[in-house]
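Quick one:
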Amino acid sequence: VQLQASGGGLVQAGGSLRLTCAASGRTFRTSDMGWFRQAPGKEREFVAAISWGGGATLYEDSVKGRFTISRDNAKNTAYLQINNLKPEDTAVYYCAARPLTLTLSIRGNDYNYWGQGTLVTVSS
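Output:
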């Protein structure tokens, strides 16, 4: 599966963005999806994941209540809705995919496919 992330931009603190991850290939519908981010000078970190059917989600603690991951299998697309943006959310955001499993993963190494990243910059 090939992934294309988009939707990033420059926003003020408190604003919102919706990131989109468009996938090609039939395997999207049988793939768990994840979002990760990498801030300048920092390691990549897990943000959120969603199961192949959308029935299960997982979030990193600092984004709970502000970020929402979703997917539309009919459109081969995953989303990350980000509300109440904070300057510390500034990062390149990546979407990733892995074949469906019983347990969602927060480990980047468990994901086989990655998009190119979209930059989110939050001004204070």
